[in-house]
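REQUEST ID: PR-0412
SUBMITTED BY: lab tech R.K.
PRIORITY: routine
TASK: structure prediction, single protein chain
INPUT:
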Amino acid sequence: MTDKKDCMTMEQAEQKMECLREVFSIVRLVDGEMLEKRAEHSADADADAMEMCQCYSFWNKAKPCENCISMKSLREKKQAAKLEFLDSDIFQVFSRYVEIDGKPYVMEMLKKLDEDTLIDAVGYGKMVQKLSVYNDKLYRDALTGAYNRRYYEDEIKHVKGKAGVAILDVDDFKLYNDMHGHHAGDMALITVVEVIRQYIRKTDKLIRYGGDEFLLLLPEIDSENFARKLNKIKKKIAETSVPGYERIKLSVSIGGVSATEETVEEAVQRADKRMYLAKMYKNTAMVEGMDQKIAEEDHDEHTDILKPRILIVDDSKINRELLTEILQDKYQIIEAENGNECVEKLEKYGNDIALILLDIVMPKMDGFAVLEYMNQEQWIDDIPVIVISGEDSEEYIWRAYEAGAVDYIRRPFDMRIVYQRVFNMIKLYAKQRRLVKILTAQIEERENLSQISDKS
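STATUS: complete
OUTPUT:
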């Protein structure tokens, strides 16, 4: 049963809060109905639920507290208290159930604790140290010392504001683990983090976002300086040896975007797409709006050409234009209107062609003849071919696969399907090429060491 002194009008409540503000740093009312609605949505923790919770504006939490004392006060219809940690500040929080004009509310009273409060200076220092250690353990990656994914989920993902947001992926990380052992992989990650820390500010956040992926958040940085900083980080990592594993050649692929009004989570999704595009080349930074500037400043062989090259072969100009429209934002497009021109382009560009989109029915030299030529010249293992054709008979499809095509898309096609299949295939072949290159280099190294050993 609610105490009579906790039943009041809104005018009485405002008068009471005015008096309490002489003692407490913050005094405010939390709508009880809103608290209940927030609790109903807390499992999803979606944007609507967060809008309903009045705590986000002050505590900057990315999801509802697991031990919300205001909710406890509301449900038990009594007063509760706890200590809350916000960055390096400690707050004593009191929540008291009240009824205002017949509606349920919780009156929250927050007092910031410091050396001048009831705790003595020594006690305050010990409390701060314990809470800091707890917070640090909760939000730090045990291996690298960077912030962990929980920190991102709890504190970062829903933050809005001007910032550079980048995803960094360690190239060929799984290969390091497989060939040198997990300790080598651990040392590679530690080395990457140590390099990054040398080139970021205290206000910047470095988060281990996944196994070999890191999220870098740089608040209040303009796009040009953001791009240069990422490019410098990329170069320094490539120049750094992994202690105890000097044969490992480190590199990272980076995707970066500038966020303004969007959440960090939304910016991360965009940066992630650019990172996957950067991985086509490895050791590349692709930063929104600054790709060309990076290319001009960076003469590394992987960034001279930032977009993979696609060859579209079709005797229909309209079909070529349609495919170009779908793909030109992310890829360099070259065209051929028949098989003969396709062969000329293959001889000119060779393995610089990342993928071929090939029609079957063409004059002079059809698609099957092109596939036969690619087999004879051993291009078919290095350059994936996706056949796009209006011919939909089983005979045509199986003949294309038997000749070495990796995929077959019937026309008319869905633009999204074409884009996604092209993206997936280029990514797969780029990874395969890097793997072959690394294995070849290691075989050569072992052969050289064997020859040296034989001579000695």
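NOTES: The chain has a mean pLDDT of 81.
REVIEWED BY: pending
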